[in-house]
Write a structure and sequence with these properties.
CATH class: Alpha Beta
Number of helices: 5
CATH topology: Rossmann fold
Structural class: alpha/beta
Helix content: 40-55%
Order of helices and strands: EHEHEHEHEH
Number of domains: 1
Distance between the termini: 19 Å
CATH superfamily: Response regulator
CATH architecture: 3-Layer(aba) Sandwich
Largest sheet: 5 strands, parallel
Length: about 120
């Protein structure tokens, strides 16, 4: 059996994050969570995930700034951006900076899984 896909989920909304983590774990993913960009960058440094799901709007280091750091410390790590507030501009900006794709909140779990698998190919 193949190893579980390691996902790092970065979102400051704890309820959203824990619910999504649970749903991914039920589907066989190994999920770590971080509530901010700083913690996420430290986690990448010690335990590189296969894919990162990154919220764009967070206090402290926001998603775009976190993405810039990820590109420096873990080039090639697939990053999917999550954006709410109807902000497709931020998602497109993130893709120009190297994100694999972006999804709007609220998201469909199957769409997220499909995009994570596509990003890792």
């Amino acid at each position: 059996m193949a190893d579980k896909i390691k996902v790092l989920l970065v979102d400051d909304e704890e309820e959203f994050s824990s619910t999504l983590a649970e749903r991914l774990q039920m589907r066989g993913f190994e999920v770590s969570t971080a509530s901010n960009g700083e913690d996420a960058l430290q986690m990448i440094d010690t335990n590189l995930p296969d894919v990162m799901v990154l919220d764009l709007r967070m206090p402290g280091i926001g998603g775009i700034e976190t993405l810039r750091h990820v590109q420096l410390i873990a080039p090639g790590l697939p990053v999917l951006l999550l954006t709410g507030y109807g902000s497709t501009e931020d998602g497109i900006k993130g893709m120009k900076l190297g994100a694999s794709d972006y999804l709007m909140k609220p998201l469909n779990i199957d769409d997220l899984i499909d995009k994570m698998k596509e990003a890792m190919v």
